[in-house]
Write the structure tokens for this entry.
Amino acid sequence: MEDSKTLTQIRLDKLMQLKELGVNPYAYCYEILHSAREILENVNEYENKKVSLAGRLMSLRGHGKTAFGHLMDSSGRIQLYVRKDKVGDEAFEIFKLVDIGDIVGIQGEVFITRTGETTIFVDDFELLAKTIRPLPIVKERIEEGEKIVYDEFSDKELRYRQRYVDLIVNPDVKDVFIKRSKITQLIRQYLLESNYLEVETPILQPIYGGAAARPFVTHHNALDIDLYLRIADELYLKRLIVGGFDGVFEFGKDFRNEGVDRYHNPEFTMLELYVAYKDYNFMMSLVEDLVGRTVNMITGGNEITYGDHRIKFEVPWPRYKMFEIIQEYTGNDLKGKSKEELRKIAHDLNVDIEDGASAGKIIDEIFGEKVEPKLIQPCFVTDYPVELSPLAKKHRSDEGIVERFEGFIAGKEFCNAFSELNDPIDQRERFESQSKYKEEGDEEAHEMDEDYIRALEFGMPPTAGLGIGLDRLVMILTNSHSIRDVVFFPHMRPE
């Protein structure tokens, strides 16, 4: 088998031959009047009619003065039939210099072959872009009645690094991203129809906040100050609630300087929504309705498959209090325990805890390892310890707890919501407590934000806030098991 360098040289030689024949191998434009899907789905209407389309050659086989191939455009694949006496001697000589992967424009009549395949009988074609590198074309053969796929472009890391090739040779990948776009549109439409205002807030921030995470740091030369890529949109969106908007949302890119795994990418997409005069109970109902409608529009029903699980989106979703569900799965009541007691329980449960972790962080680690993976059907876990939630309002009836919930599907958290803290004095005390956690070694503790406290001092109405990890929701709704499968260009280690 010829190696890729030899194949590349062969293509470069063909490129020179095309130029010597006066052919521009990189055209400026081409008029497209039809698509492969349109023709295939309406073959009775298009049979014996002339069509014009463009795309990439994905297969090619010649037989002397004739050739068959398949052209793939953005909608699908369709077979081509090229014959020398139809296109002419000169054009056929040019066609013989075309390779799999080249982008061409074609015109011709639609017909049905004896085997029943819809085909275009080409009478004119134009080379639009000559490829230099050969595609890793997937091949198939039938053995004992079974289809065998080989030469597959299946190396995950290579696919992520060369997403452009992945999209060409693995059509299912394109379908995931089309579905991602549709999910985003459906959520946006839902929020706009609810009369919430879509806004934009700063990505470069002088003080990072709104989540427990380490930031990326950059420097602004003209102002001579360090700035941070935002880790969340929250504090700026709540400033807008202070300013008088009753409901605002943002689809925002957030950045967290953290590890990379199946569920984490340093750059990710969040939807954040804040609604004045509401609480976390309102937001639970909104999430049920929003996610349920999205599932229905994507699937036509209220069920999806994720891995080995069949997941049903029936309302109301179950609601579990955090301490109660931890006790149910571990046999340990963590409420009111000291940090030392919690650390011992974590040790007994074989849960690794970082040095300097606060009591709330230990509880969260136990929950994440022993409970979260078991929450397969859609549900809410509510009422978190105050140490974990410095921006959430204290529970109206339960000491040491805040009004917060997280939503879980398929064993993974996908959303987070609060009854938002709007007491500036309480907020200052929470930030000061976070500063102490940072001094004790918690690198993800919140920073003090004096301007945000000042905004609260001007008065923020009761507010419900919600953050949905769009990447994770798309993973669940497309049966994808890595965030890299739903992000076009995930971050990778250098080659």
